[in-house]
TrEMBL record:
Protein name: TVP38/TMEM64 family membrane protein
This protein's record includes keyword Transmembrane: yes
Residue ranges constituting the VTT domain according to the UniProt record: 33-148
Bilayer topology annotation: Multi-pass membrane protein
Membrane-traversing stretches: 12-33, 53-70, 102-123, 160-177
Organism annotation: Kroppenstedtia pulmonis
Main subcellular location of this protein, as a coarse class: membrane
One Pfam entry name: VTT_dom
Compartment(s) of residence: Cell membrane
GO cellular component, one term: plasma membrane
């Protein structure tokens, strides 16, 4: 799939940029398709900075569009703003600052699928503007990780040590975070 995307993006000229953003947006809208293939193609065609930027913009836009569509559909189907679920009530009863912090935390945890944050966020009372900014900020680390892995996979013969280092750094960060959250 990556090769097809590389061909489309590189042969599209300026339109390849828009196609890349569109593909990332569509992957985000689907909610369950990993975007690493698009990020890898972006990195291959436009390098780590340009490709990473395109992936970040596409994934962020896709998440925000998905949030709006899910929220609209959810409210049309249920006729309610939220569901009377305990965790939703707990989230909604928090201050705006607390909602933003929780959303940002959910975005930063790499094991929580982006689609889940989009769907569950749409069932709360969080403001669209807050969802937008937390998504833009929260997508930065995951996009950077995807770019790093993509770069290392593209140049695996030369940079296998960096790939191992990236994975180890990620695991150490994750363990540190878990320890800190488990024992505040």
């Amino acid at each position: 799939m990556k090769q097809v995307l590389v061909e489309w993006f590189s042969s599209g000229g300026v339109w390849g940029v828009f196609l890349s953003i569109l593909m990332n947006t569509l992957f985000s809208l689907a909610g369950f398709i990993p975007s690493i293939a698009v990020t890898g193609a972006n990195v291959w065609v436009w390098g780590p900075l340009g490709g990473g930027l395109l992936s970040w913009v596409g994934e962020s836009f896709g998440s925000v569009i998905a949030f709006v569509l899910y929220r609209t559909g959810f409210r049309m189907v249920t006729g309610k703003k939220t569901l009377p679920w305990k965790w939703i009530n707990l989230f909604n009863s928090g201050s705006r600052t607390r909602q933003v912090r929780l959303l940002l935390l959910f975005r930063l945890i790499p094991f929580i699928p982006s689609g889940a944050v989009n769907v569950l966020g749409s069932m709360t009372t969080v403001r669209l503007r807050d969802f937008f900014w937390t998504t833009m900020i929260g997508k930065l680390p995951s996009t950077a990780l995807e770019v790093s892995v993509s770069m290392n996979l593209i140049h695996i013969r030369d940079q296998y040590i960096y790939l191992i280092g990236t994975i180890l750094l990620f695991l150490i960060g994750w363990m540190w975070w878990r320890k800190r959250v488990a024992n505040p």
